[in-house]
Amino acid sequence: MKPYQIGVIVFSTILTFSALYAPQPLQPLLMEEFGVSQERSALLTTVTMLPLGLAPIVYGYMLESFSSRRLLRFALLALAVLQFLFFLSPSFNVLIILRFFVGLAIPAVLTSLMTYISNMSEKGNVQRLMAFYISSTIMGGFAGRFFSGLIAATLGWRMNFLSLSIALLLSFFLTASLHEAELKVSKFSPAAVIEVIKRRRFGAVYLLIFATFFMFAALLNFLPFRMRELNEASSSLTIGVMYTGYIMGIVMSLNSLRIVRFLGGEMRTVFTALSFYCLTLFFFTFDSVAVMFAGMFFFCCCMFLAHSVASGYLNKIAEDRKGITNGLYVSFYYIGGTLGSILPGFVYSGFGWKVFLLSIGLVMASAVVIGRITLGRLYYNDL
């Protein structure tokens, strides 16, 4: 794959994730402006995650016999239009509806990009390119949150979505320069999904990534409210700065292959990262924004190391059905995110912050134990 193609993919990925997470640091602000509850405000993230959990399977099927480039361009154009409508939105109910459609468009972009990279790369190079892709998702997640808070604090929250709309339109035009990936047509069959999941390595990765994003989405979705709880003066900019730790994920993903070699295998790396990932929740038990800020760096390091290695590993071992394989990965990832952005909120409201942290930690720890048992001896032979 040529450098300019990688550049276009990186740019499109950053913008897509910026669109996904832009409302998150604005939730307390939007809650006050539209006069809605904390739980209803959090729906701006949840309602987007819902289609993200299911749509990628459909897109994965489509990409077995449909151009990934064509689907990518259509989805980017749809995202640009939706951000512009969000900029114009007169009510919170309209915002919720628009975010649902954003949730339908984003997995089309993500599944197309992962499949395009997999199809256009040589097998020995796919993990390195997937690391670039994951780095781009991290930068997009940070940029969406940080610049959203910054722009809202200076120009108002609506200008953030107008800027995103213009940038996504530019991305749509740039992707016209991508070459078409060669199609490897497979028979359309629902049984193909079960066939992929039943492969032990695949099933274990899907379970782990489900729990990983469950915990990640839960913490990041309710952290703004915890910050307001500790200090009512916390602004959208202050909340946006809290996500600076996200940048460490870029460092980890770009160095993931070195870490894999050091630890002796992909799945060993994933299990090691996720074990420490659970432990990082200890930072968030402190009633200190400064300690939580430091904890975010370690939290993101572990999460994105596991995510980067797991996604590259799947594409390395997938000999066929790459569209479905990547579609399932994105689906499990965001089903975990959907549930993580809803269910732990009830624990937080009913039992407090520390029980909330304990509950999401138990979900992650259970997945690590089950995944380790599921793999058995395969754990020792994953290189």
How big a fraction of the residues is strand? under 5%
Q: Name the poorly predicted regions.
A: none
Considering DSSP H and I runs of 4 or more, what fraction of the residues is helical? over 70%
Q: How many DSSP E strands?
A: 0
* Helix count from the secondary structure assignment: 17
**What structural category do the secondary elements indicate?**
mainly alpha
Average of pLDDT: 82
What does the overall shape look like?
Answer: globular
Biggest β-sheet: count, sense, barrel? none
Oligomer: single chain
What brief labels describe this structure?
383 residues; single chain; globular; 17 helices; mainly alpha
Break the fold down into its secondary structure elements and pairings.
Layout: H1 3-21, H2 27-34, H3 38-62, H4 68-88, H5 92-120, H6 126-154, H7 157-174, H8 191-198, H9 200-230, H10 236-242, H11 248-254, H12 256-263, H13 266-279, H14 289-317, H15 322-340, H16 343-351, H17 353-375
Helix pairs in contact: 1-5, 1-6, 1-7, 2-3, 3-5, 3-15, 4-5, 4-7, 5-6, 5-15, 6-7, 6-10, 6-11, 6-14, 9-14, 9-15, 9-17, 11-14, 13-14, 13-17, 16-17
